[in-house]
Amino acid sequence: MKKDFDKDALSDMYKDKFLAPENEIRFVNAPDGSIIEVNPLDDYFCQERPKELKPRKGVVEKFLNWARAESLWVLGFGTGCGSIEIPPLSTPRFDMYRFGVQMRATPRQSNVFIISGYLSVKTLKRAIRSYEQMPSPKYIIALGSCTINGGMYWDSYNTINRLDHYLPVDVYIAGCMPRPEALLAGFGKLKELIKEGKAEKANEYIQNLDWYKANQKKIIKDWNMPDYNW
Amino acid sequence: MKQLVEIIQNHFPINDIDLRKKSLAFISIHQNQAIPLLEWLKTTHGYKAFVLLTAVDWIEENRFQLTYLISNPDNFTELGVRVFIDREKAEMVSAHHLWKSIWVYQRELKEMFGINFPNSPRVNESFILEGWDTIPPYRRDFDTKQYSEETYFPRPGRSTNDPAKHMKSKLYPKD
To answer: What is the ipTM of this complex?
Structure first.
């Protein structure tokens, strides 16, 4: 508890109001006695723009798409009330594993991101960061009416209305809330799209990156992370 | 509760008494007397459990109402202490020295209502609304619908139907 109270004095030390303390420039003593400047935003994060993952030609792409569709690794990130619909999928009754769908703990290991319901601005910031850390090819499933037009939170001061202005959405699952059966149908639809080569929203995100970033920065007012999180 | 309120009346000037039931009562007291009263109740009358601290925006009367709900775990009674503070100069003495958990409530009230609690731990850090730059959203002069429409790209074509009218037109289109 005492540690928390000490942080109060820390808040005065913030020079840039929104720069997180771990991202501030600091000086470190090297073993040989020299002093090294560490700028986390430059040193730990990539400053280059992301590159598209261009589809290959002919049979190769078809084979890759088949393989991708049969092995969907979902990021375990529940954002709204819809996250309660995901745990039943791993129970024997619904059993998502028979479709090649499984849950992963970190964004670096997964390629499907289920936005499960309403997104507050605070969560959106984390969702963007998680999405950008996922390796391509990656897909987003938007669950529930909140992600489509705001749902019952359409006039809330703190939840977004349209997810597709901030992150590219491959499959929408309508409902409030959709049942796990609907989620399985959504996975089926996503598989169809991948096999047809139509699930290219991650590339569209990169093509229209400036538009997406402008929308994101319009509502995330304390943008204290790097522009690119990959 | 009646006995307790009478004892309090002997020691503190109470403005308003609201006896709800055997185990629940609300009293209101002046801003300056509230923290001493809470401390006194905690030390001498066993109201050692803090339940919640909440605020109401009475915009017509130009004041905020703070309610400290405290509980006595020995005889299972709860007492709400109401404090009215000015809306223009929304500031209240922090009570985090009495209950450690109260600073979270104070931080939330600072963010949601703009009520300041000087010297409360981490009270100036953002809680839920990171980087909020307009008036606090729980104040009643904040128009949440307008803010949402200006900020969050509303999807056009949204409409609502009165269920009764909709079903009538669907089931009995000739009427």
So the answer is: 0.80
